[in-house]
């Protein structure tokens, strides 16, 4: 079981995200498609939009 992760995102010196991203199957599938190394797979994603 994984620990909950507190993530922070900054852009131009200001915080634009702070929280615990939810895990999703779609994030894992996209990670698998982009990376062929199992150690670099991710189960969560943070979408930052303007």
| Total count of strands | 2
Please state how the strands of the largest beta sheet are arranged side by side.
1-2
Structural class: alpha+beta
Q: Could you tell me the strand content as a percent range?
A: 15-25%
Number of helices: 1
Q: Main beta sheet, described?
A: 2 strands, antiparallel
What is the 3D shape? Answer: globular
Distance between the termini: 33 Å
Mean pLDDT: 85
Rg computed from alpha carbons, rounded to a whole number of angstroms: 12 Å
Order of secondary-structure elements: EEH
Helix content: 10-25%
**Which segments are poorly predicted (pLDDT under 50) over 5 or more consecutive residues?**
none
Which terms would index this structure?
alpha+beta; two-stranded antiparallel ribbon; 1 helix; globular; 50 residues
Q: If you had to describe this structure to a student in words, what would you say it looks like?
A:
The protein is α+β, with helices and mostly antiparallel strands and 50 residues long. The protein has one helix at residues 25-34; strands at 7-11, 14-19. It has a two-stranded antiparallel ribbon. The relative contact order is 0.25.
């Amino acid at each position: 079981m994984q620990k909950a992760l507190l993530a922070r995102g900054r852009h131009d010196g200001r915080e634009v995200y702070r929280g615990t991203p939810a895990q999703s199957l779609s994030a894992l599938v996209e990670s698998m498609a982009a990376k062929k190394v199992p150690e670099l797979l991710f189960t969560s994603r943070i979408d930052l939009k303007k």
